[in-house]
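ok trying this again, last paste got cut off
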Amino acid sequence: MPDDAPSTDRESPVGKPVIRGDPTFTGDHAEEAVEFDPDDPDSLELAARTVGRFSQNTAGADDNVYMLRGAAACAALVRGEGSYKAAAERAGGDATVSFIRKWSRVHDLPRSVRVHVAKGEIAPTAAKHIARLAGEARLLLAWAALDHDLTVRQIRSVASGVNNGATIEEALATEGYRLGELTIDIDVDAYCKLRRRAALDATDPSSVVTESLESTLGDGP
């Protein structure tokens, strides 16, 4: 990956409540954030119990922070035990290898995606399918999901298409959507300047916006 490319994987330590512990994104839930340290035996035991309960409890399926906590516990348990199989055996309950792998991948999504999960803008069940993709494709699917309000079924379909060899553009087109298409509101002064610049440069507003963003935006996590 080029040095200036956006991160497509988690950069903060496994189990650390970077998003879950930030009241900006999770409000009062931040006070309840638990860190799972895969190198601490007591914390790892807590992770194992959390995964076991998480695998058997669907009551919190609409609570995005609850789901992120379960995902963090899965990832920490895998790191501490050394394998998905060992993690599943220790957690017990309905925690299968497949279950733990899927939720560990959600925990490993980059912060820029996990923020939207915590805020309820990307459903945790949708995040599982976004996490099936690697590299830039997972970011592009996340942004397309936000821009077009994709359903979980549509996100799953696009992820499957990409994993079967289609480009993210092709997989989205199959669902009837274009990558990079979004609607934004800007103030009147900026709008006037944008239209004037496009006219003087004999181009279109999209090209002006793209060039401006590429020259000014930095890449974050």
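PB: full thing came through this time. The chain has a mean pLDDT of 87.
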